[in-house]
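ARCHIVE CARD
CATEGORY: sequence design from structure
SOURCE FIELD: tokenized fold
FIELD CONTENT:
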């Protein structure tokens, strides 16, 4: 297992070698990066296990779980890999870390890829009706009625115990056996303490981040899933608008894990990877 030391001495693990120009991937959750797999068959993928998840060590100071403080971990990985600049991908909550890294180290970004990203770092709000509108496109699904009722409660701020599980099908383009297995594995890989500290008070300064992103001179790809309730396309379009050199794409039928729904489409959208 390849590993390196973060500035505070925490030993962090990563998976894959990636070659001369890897695609460094930051997972959501935070959870172990294993759920990303090879992102539908991409070459040159390097997945970082964020501190306290997967094969990475638990830090001595829980305050270092905060997203902005983990920017130093990404920079340490770049230096460890001997790269001048990063092709950096962030998925879900990991996109917050990727965005903060790009804001703090714009000269170290060769390309930024945000896949069904969380928008907290940039302060893009996602309204309940936006989520419900996307969800209603799944009305023909056999699980829809129960899941939609739960979603209505959650988005109205009156969720019940178990509602989080009921709305999970809305985060997959197809709620089949493969999706169920993927979700179950992800639940086992979750870093509960790491997730609790990731968005702690002070982690995000959206105004400062937006100002920094406006000057980012690197190509950015924002990829949304057409059927993704967690990161609905309208909010993803708003996020994309914060970058000066951006491509925004919506994967047809894609959910929150779009590489599972159509690996070929996903790979083509990201473009060829160097060997």
């Amino acid at each position: 297992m390849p590993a390196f030391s973060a500035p505070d001495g925490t030993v962090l693990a990563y998976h894959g070698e990636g070659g001369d120009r890897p695609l460094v991937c930051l997972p959501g959750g935070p959870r172990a990066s294993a759920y990303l797999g090879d992102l539908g068959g991409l070459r040159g993928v390097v997945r970082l296990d964020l501190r306290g998840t997967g094969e990475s060590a638990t830090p001595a100071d829980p305050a270092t779980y905060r997203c902005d403080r983990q920017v130093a971990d990404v920079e340490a990985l770049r230096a460890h890999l001997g790269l001048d600049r990063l092709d950096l991908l962030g998925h879900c909550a990991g996109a917050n870390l990727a965005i903060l890294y790009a804001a703090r180290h714009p000269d170290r970004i060769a390309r930024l890829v945000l896949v069904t990203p969380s928008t907290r770092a940039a302060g893009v709000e996602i309204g309940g009706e936006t989520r419900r509108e996307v969800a209603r496109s799944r009305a023909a699904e056999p699980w829809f009625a129960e899941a939609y009722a739960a979603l209505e409660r959650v988005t109205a701020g009156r969720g019940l115990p178990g509602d989080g599980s009921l709305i999970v099908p809305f985060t997959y383009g197809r709620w089949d056996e493969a999706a169920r297995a993927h979700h179950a594995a992800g639940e086992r890989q979750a870093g509960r303490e790491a997730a609790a500290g990731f968005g702690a008070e002070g982690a995000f300064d959206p105004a400062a981040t937006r100002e920094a992103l406006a000057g980012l001179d690197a190509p950015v790809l924002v990829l949304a899933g057409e059927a993704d309730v967690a990161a609905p396309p309208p909010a993803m379009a708003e996020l994309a608008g914060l970058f000066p050199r951006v491509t925004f794409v919506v994967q047809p039928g894609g959910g929150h894990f779009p590489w599972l729904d159509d690996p070929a489409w996903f790979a083509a959208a990201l473009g060829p990877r160097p060997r």
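CARD ANNOTATION: The longest strand covers residues 109-115. The chain has one domain: 3-123+172-270.
SHELF: design records, drawer C
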